[in-house]
Design goal:
The complex is a heterodimer of chains A (114) and B (108). Chain A has 114 residues and is mainly β. Chain A has strands at 5-7, 10-13, 19-24, 31-37, 44-50, 53-56, 65-68, 75-79, 88-95, 104-105, 109-113. Chain B is mainly β. Chain B is 0% helix and 56% strand. The chains are: A mainly beta (114), B mainly beta (108).
């Protein structure tokens, strides 16, 4: 079974620039999540999709972050404009509805904002 | 108060030692519980689910106390390869809430 695919693996941008991350979940997983993990902290949920609808985006900084999941499969997360404090690993995960067995994470995108 | 709290460590133990990690969670309505392992610069990976009756997987034993809202992980006969960060995870309303993790370093 193919895992959760993410790209790019690494990205370095200057503050105030924009950046986009892409995720392809495990086939058949209706639920997709984007997490932000700052160094030394646990992952923090940014947004949760079920199929192509948003279930929870309460912790997404909507003034600069946006995400979409067109057609209920792939998803993109965008930051515009980036701030220094956005430097983190952005993890995409997918699961069956309700996450009864936890999630499977992708390998993440490491963002550095300079 | 954080939703999921863990001792950050690090726990430095010799090979062969037994080590235990604890975790508390704040939401009594939480539905399911997990331990994830995260190696340096890698993504978190599911180590094991945690059940009310307690469960064991080889050298790893997980326990849940719903009344105290407390989860534990016991690792017996520690190996060098067990060195990692262990994340306590709680399923709240179908989304996983992660603790900050406990660092384990096993040394020869």
């Amino acid at each position: 079974e193919a895992g959760v695919a993410q790209s790019p693996r690494y990205k370095i941008i200057e503050k105030r620039q924009s950046v986009a991350f892409w995720c392809n979940p495990i086939s058949g997983h209706a639920t997709l999540y984007w997490y932000q993990q700052i160094l030394g902290q646990g992952p923090k949920l940014l947004i949760q999709f079920q199929n192509n609808g948003v279930v929870d985006d309460s912790q997404l900084p909507k003034d600069r972050f946006s995400a979409e999941r067109l057609k209920g499969v792939d998803s993109t997360l965008k930051i515009q404009p980036a701030k220094l404090e956005d430097s983190a690993v952005y993890l995409c995960a997918s699961s069956l509805v309700g996450a009864p067995d936890g999630y499977t994470f992708g390998s993440g995108t490491r963002l550095t904002v300079v | 108060r954080k939703e999921v709290e863990q001792d950050p460590g690090p726990f430095n133990v010799p090979e062969g030692a037994t080590v235990a990690f604890n975790c508390t969670y704040s939401n009594s309505a939480s539905q399911s519980f997990f331990w994830y392992r995260q190696d340096c610069r890698k993504e978190p990976k599911l180590l094991m689910s945690v059940y009310s009756s307690g469960n064991e997987d080889g050298r790893f034993t997980a326990q849940l106390n719903r009344a105290s809202q407390y989860i534990s992980l016991l690792i017996r006969d520690s190996k060098l390869s067990d060195s990692a960060t262990y994340l306590c995870v709680v399923n709240e309303a179908h989304k996983l809430v992660f603790g900050a993790g406990t660092i384990l370093r096993v040394k020869s």
